[in-house]
Amino acid sequence: MRKVLLIVSLCLPLLSVGQYQRSNDIFPNFGNYERKGWLINPAITYTLKPFKKNQQRMFTGSDSVYDVLINAKGKMGVGLEIGRFYAIDNSRIISYVDFSLGIKILRGAEKFEATLDDPDRAEPYILNGEGVFSQNYATASFNVTNAQPLSRGTSMHNTIGINADYRLTEYYEYNDRSLPMDLNVPGRFVFQAHYKLGFGFTMGKNLMLIPSVETPLVTFHEYDDLKSTLSIFNSRYRPVIFRLTVLVMDNKPDRKCPKNKKRSKSESLFGALDTKRPW
Question: Each residue of 43-61: pLDDT tens digit?
Fold first, then answer.
């Protein structure tokens, strides 16, 4: 239920704004450019850690018991996508749609502190360990955006989209100190719905810059109760993507007058002569 309420609350600004604004308000209205074009999406990724530390009670094969405190840590990565966008002029809700292909890198770390449960010890026996990961994905995304003009040359962009990610390479290193740690890794293919909030700035006759922040709403594959976070090692990380989208509108093709064709003897001013007609 919480996930449904979250999605509805995020979509409300998009729907309510779209009732009053036309999509073509955000794009410069110049006759030399098409209402479509290329987009470039350089990005910085970050794996947001859980707000609460994970606590576990762990039993080893030697009948020892450890109380383990796990602390995730986010790290930055990079990404880049290139694609196309198309303005939707006949809709009061959708301003433009876009699709893109690219790569993105997710990185993170995890530390733990394991305290031996032994009341006979004068001082606690503690084991410390840590792990790091890096995942490189090929990604494809499709987005639907409603944009509201805020002032001349600025606009607010609410976007709902889907992304399909396929992990190309990966790196994991974990010092578990011989404890039976569960090291979870998401599936190689990830399919999600996401939300993005951005602010557009018109920089010229055919150029717009849109800094934005994006995060998943639900994960459809691999299915895990539709959770929007990824289970890696013993923690759940939320991918957050900071983008700087560059929209470049296409030039309209040059209009050239058709060349005059030399009429043949069988043609008149109104077309080919029909010799069967009396006139």
Answer: 999 999 998 889 999 988 7
